[in-house]
Amino acid sequence: MKIVELVEITKSYFLNYCNNSKFLYSVLCAFGVYKIVYYAFFDGLRGIPGPWASRFTFYPIRKALVSGETTRYLLSLHKKYGPVVRIGPNWVSDSRVSDFKKVMATHRFRKSSDYDGFAGVHQNIFSTRDEEFNRMRRRQIGPAFSHTGLDSVESIVQSICVDSLIDKLGEMVDNGAGSAQFNYFKYLQNTTADVIGELAFGERFYALENDGHPVTGWVNESLKNSFIFSSFPILRYFQNIIPGLTIIEPELRQFCLDAIKRRKDLVKSGKFSNDRIDILQMYLVAVNNSDKKPLSNNELIAEMVIMVLAGVDTTSITLTWLITYYMLYPKVYQRVVEEVRSNFPNKEHKITHKESREKLPYFVATVYEALRIRGAVGGALAREVPMEGIELSGYQIPQGTNVFMFVPGAHQDTQVWGNDVSFNPERFLGPQGESLKKEILAFSTGVRMCPGRK
């Protein structure tokens, strides 16, 4: 009885104090003071340079993430503070290539929980934080990204997509009496959308002919919301309440389901060529390790959407910057033209991927340099530091820290690239150039490298 009475007295005492606004205010103030003192003098990251406010709040980096200013913000911090910068209470940004490779070499550094915002209707090859799931998806999709797989669709991509772009531009020039003015990013975006349509959806989007396709808008809207969910995870629970805040646009989901049905019908009728190895077919014939069952519709949709997300804008942005640098550096452009014409004098010959790698070293070097200076991945790849911690550029990073491996910063690492920040494709020529190609991190590196790197 005395124990029960003691509990009741304690409960009453606690509730009385909780109903006292001064008590609650005092508790909050005490907690705030504790956090300030801890982060200022006792936490494991206190020796890492960075803005003073970053010791106590994520607001500056979250604001940069949501507003699309991550690259500019982090570049300014690294320029001021060095290769390792504190950007939040337990967040660190790292722009050193050697550190990047150290972290990315093992699955021990899991993707951070921020990637959950990109899961869509199901975890996918990009968003998953599970090592076995990622290995499984890579095995399932591997044949589509092998040399055999790429060779099986190259002629389709060339004839249906690239030739269509050439014809479209030629028609515009003819109609313009020898010249034409156009937004080449838009045309490249539509062309890459058609390519991804062939590979991931099994059919062309006809974006080039129709000046775009709704699928790119649906995916970009989903991407925007993914960044919001990544920065503010609690909003995922309100997506059916807040207008426009959905993980997958309803139209995009139905578009994917229709494409899946058409491919299954094509296979069932015997009209699908087994010589074609594309992404959609690899996933349709795949079996999950956990239940030995084929991928569900939600799993298929998640992978199809991430392929559009990963392939359309990244490729078109990179090509846009490449053409821009050709215009800014006319001597570089002239050398590329001479290299192509001297090795392939027959204008009717369609240059294959293999031929360009073997016979156009300078052109390939310009692509690598464009990836270095203006890679389409403009943010940072976040990883969680495991129990044993890690040393990065002389700083000891404790367990539980999120390390953001900053790609644009790594592509300006003076230990690798020197102080030359200009567009200089020559750096990628010769034996030293072949070695430098391995330092390009536009597709990440290590165990979670982009499977589409080839």
UniProtKB/TrEMBL annotation:
It holds the Pfam family p450. The chain crosses the membrane at residues 23-42. Belongs to the cytochrome P450 family. InterPro entries: Cyt_P450, Cyt_P450_CS, Cyt_P450_E_grp-I, Cyt_P450_sf, Cytochrome_P450_monoxygenase. GO terms for molecular function: heme binding; iron ion binding; monooxygenase activity; oxidoreductase activity, acting on paired donors, with incorporation or reduction of molecular oxygen. It comes from Smittium mucronatum. Keywords: Heme, Iron, Membrane, Metal-binding, Monooxygenase, Oxidoreductase, Transmembrane, Transmembrane helix. This is Isotrichodermin C-15 hydroxylase. Heme binds at residue 450. PANTHER family: CYTOCHROME P450, CYTOCHROME P450 12A4, MITOCHONDRIAL-RELATED. SUPFAM superfamilies: Cytochrome P450. Its cofactor is heme.
